[in-house]
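Please fill in the sequence for the structure shown.

STRUCTURE ENCODING:
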C-alpha cells in the first residue's frame, strides 16, 4: 500500500497534460473521434525530498560564496557543488558530505545551552576572514553562513523523507571539460553562430529547436533551458549530469551526442545531434501497435544503449516512447539525460523518487533504494506499449472516473495489479514481457550481477534472431526507414511543436539580476571529435 506521503501526489493529475486532437468531443469529458487515451506524452519529474542522518533533517539549498561546509571546510557554491542545510540545527554541508556528519543533530535550544557552557572552547575555530566556523565534526549553529540565495517561487511538488539516501557524489570540476583541448577551448560558440529554424519539442524545463550552424550549414538540435528554472535547490544538479552524460554518450551509435554548450545571462544551451526520424511516440500514435520483429529490433538496440550507460555507472531513469528517436536510417537513438544518475558502481543504490509516472518501477514506489533494475522495468513497459498499443496499467473506464484518473491510483495499480499479457502475442514475447515486468527487481530480467544480467537478455529466446555484434555495428537493416525529403524535413515531428513560432522570449533584467552567474562557471564545452569533423568540411 502507498503511504500517506505518496498520497500528496493525488493533486497531480493527467489532466495537466494537454494532448491535441483535430476533432471536437460530442460532450464534455467524452473522447474526441480518433482519440486514443492509452498513449500520451507525459513529462518526467523529480519529487523533492528530505535527507535524515543522525537526527539531522537535511534539505538541498543554494548558497552564496560565503557558505562553507562544516565537514570538509570547502566552499559550497558553483556548478556541481550543491549544499545541504539541516532545517533544525541549520548545519551546512556539501551534498557529498552529509552522510558522514558524525555528531547528532541538536535543537536550537540545546545549541544555545551548549554554547553557554562551551564559550571560548576549542570546538569553534576562526577562519582567516575572522568569521566563526564550526568544528567539522560538531553540530552547531551556522549563524555566519545564513547568506542563502533566495529561493525562486517554484511550488514544491512533493517531499519524501528517506534515511541516508543520497542523489550523488560531487564530480570534480575538471570532469566538466573532459576531453577539451586548448584549441577547442579557443573556439566557443554563441547564439549568433546559429540560425533558429523550427521548434521540434518541449519538455518540463526546456524547449528544443532545430538549428543550423551558419559556418558549416550543418543541422543540429538545440536544447534551451532558462536559468531561472534551474537555480533552485537541487535543480542545477541535473544540468551538470545531463551535460556529462551527453559527453559520455557522444561516441555511441544508439545515444544522442553533444556538439557544444554555451550560455547567455538568462539561458543555457545544449547543441546536440539532430535525429531526423522523429520519436517512437509520434510513430506509435499512427501505427497503434508494432509487429513483433519491429519491436524486437528496437528493444535490442535500446538494450545495447542501456547496457553501455550501466557499464559507465549511469542509470537512465527516463526511458519512454518520447525519448526514443529514430535516425534517417531507422536506427534508435536515446535522448534526454536530465533524469540520469551517475556514479553508480556494482552494489551501489540511490533513492530519488523520480521518473515519468507510467514507467516508474515498483521499487521506487515502495520507497526502496534501487539501481539499474528500474531501466529494465521501463523497457518492459515500453515493449508492452509497442506490442499491445496501450500501457500495461490502463484500466477500462479509468478515464471517466475522476478517482481513478490520478497518479495516486496509477501508482497503486503498478504496485498491486497483475499484468495481463495479450493472448495475441507469441509465447516468446509473453515470456520476455514477464521477465522485464517482474515486480521483484532481484528476479527481473537483466538484473543479475554484471555482466550476467545483460547476457540473460541476449540469451532470451525472444532475441534468438538477433545478431548482437552486427546490431551494435549498425549492420542490421532496420524494419522501418522514415520518409525524409531533405535534411530539414520535419514530417516526423508533431505539428503542435513545429507550427509554434520560433522565438526566445525577451530577457527580463529583473530576473537576470536574481541569478548568480558564477554558479554556471565552466558550463561552456565544445566536443573535440565533432570539431575535427567540421574542420574537414
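FILLED IN BY: designer on duty
SEQUENCE:
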Amino acid at each position: 500500500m502507498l503511504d500517506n506521503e505518496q498520497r500528496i501526489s493525488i493533486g497531480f493529475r493527467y489532466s495537466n497534460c494537454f494532448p491535441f486532437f483535430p476533432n471536437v468531443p460530442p460532450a464534455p469529458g467524452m473522447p474526441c473521434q480518433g482519440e486514443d487515451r492509452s498513449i500520451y506524452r507525459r513529462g518526467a519529474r523529480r519529487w523533492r525530498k528530505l535527507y535524515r542522518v543522525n537526527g539531522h533533517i537535511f534539505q538541498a539549498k543554494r548558497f552564496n560564496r560565503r557558505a562553507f561546509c562544516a565537514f570538509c571546510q570547502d566552499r559550497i557554491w558553483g556548478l556541481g557543488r550543491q549544499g545541504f542545510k539541516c532545517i533544525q540545527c541549520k548545519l551546512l554541508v556539501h551534498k557529498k558530505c552529509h552522510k558522514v556528519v558524525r555528531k547528532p543533530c541538536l535543537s536550537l535550544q540545546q545549541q544555545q545551552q551548549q554554547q553557554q557552557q562551551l564559550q571560548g572552547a576549542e570546538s569553534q575555530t576562526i577562519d582567516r576572514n575572522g568569521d566563526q566556523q564550526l568544528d567539522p565534526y560538531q553540530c552547531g549553529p551556522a549563524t555566519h553562513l545564513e547568506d542563502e540565495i533566495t529561493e525562486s517561487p517554484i511550488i514544491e511538488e512533493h517531499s519524501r523523507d528517506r534515511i541516508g539516501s543520497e542523489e550523488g557524489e560531487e564530480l570534480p570540476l575538471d570532469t566538466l571539460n573532459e576531453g577539451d583541448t586548448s584549441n577547442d577551448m579557443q573556439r566557443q560558440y554563441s547564439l549568433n553562430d546559429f540560425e533558429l529554424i523550427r521548434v521540434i519539442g518541449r519538455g518540463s524545463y526546456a524547449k528544443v529547436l532545430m538549428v543550423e550552424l551558419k559556418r558549416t550549414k550543418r543541422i543540429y538540435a538545440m536544447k534551451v533551458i532558462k536559468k531561472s528554472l534551474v537555480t533552485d535547490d537541487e535543480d542545477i544538479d541535473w544540468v551538470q549530469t545531463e551535460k556529462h552524460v551527453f559527453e559520455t554518450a557522444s561516441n555511441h551509435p544508439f545515444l544522442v551526442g553533444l556538439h557544444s554548450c554555451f550560455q547567455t545571462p538568462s539561458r543555457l544551451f545544449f547543441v546536440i545531434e539532430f535525429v531526423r526520424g522523429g520519436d517512437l511516440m509520434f510513430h506509435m500514435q499512427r501505427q497503434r501497435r508494432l509487429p513483433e520483429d519491429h519491436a524486437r529490433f528496437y528493444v535490442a538496440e535500446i538494450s545495447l544503449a542501456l547496457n553501455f550507460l550501466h557499464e559507465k555507472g549511469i542509470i537512465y531513469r527516463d526511458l519512454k516512447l518520447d525519448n526514443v528517436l529514430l535516425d534517417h536510417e531507422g536506427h534508435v537513438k536515446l535522448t534526454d539525460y536530465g533524469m540520469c544518475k551517475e556514479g553508480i558502481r556494482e552494489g551501489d543504490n540511490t533513492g530519488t523518487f523520480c521518473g515519468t509516472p507510467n514507467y516508474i518501477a515498483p521499487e521506487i514506489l515502495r520507497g526502496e533504494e534501487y539501481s539499474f533494475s528500474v531501466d529494465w522495468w521501463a523497457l518492459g513497459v515500453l515493449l508492452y506499449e509497442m506490442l499491445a498499443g496501450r500501457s500495461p496499467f490502463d484500466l477500462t473506464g479509468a478515464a471517466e472516473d475522476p478517482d481513478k484518473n490520478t497518479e495516486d491510483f496509477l501508482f497503486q495499480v503498478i504496485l498491486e495489479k497483475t499484468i495481463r499479457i495479450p493472448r495475441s502475442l507469441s509465447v516468446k514475447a509473453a515470456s520476455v514481457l514477464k521477465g522485464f515486468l517482474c515486480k521483484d527487481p532481484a528476479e527481473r530480467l537483466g538484473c543479475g550481477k554484471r555482466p550476467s544480467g545483460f547476457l540473460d537478455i541476449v540469451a532470451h529466446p525472444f532475441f534468438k534472431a538477433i545478431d548482437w555484434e552486427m546490431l551494435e555495428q549498425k549492420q542490421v537493416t532496420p524494419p522501418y526507414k522514415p520518409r525524409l525529403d531533405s535534411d530539414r524535413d520535419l514530417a516526423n515531428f508533431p505539428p503542435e511543436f513545429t507550427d509554434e513560432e520560433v522565438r526566445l522570449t525577451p530577457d527580463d533584467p529583473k530576473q537576470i539580476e536574481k541569478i548568480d552567474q558564477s554558479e554556471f562557471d565552466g558550463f561552456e564545452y565544445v566536443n573535440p571529435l565533432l570539431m575535427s569533423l567540421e574542420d574537414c568540411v
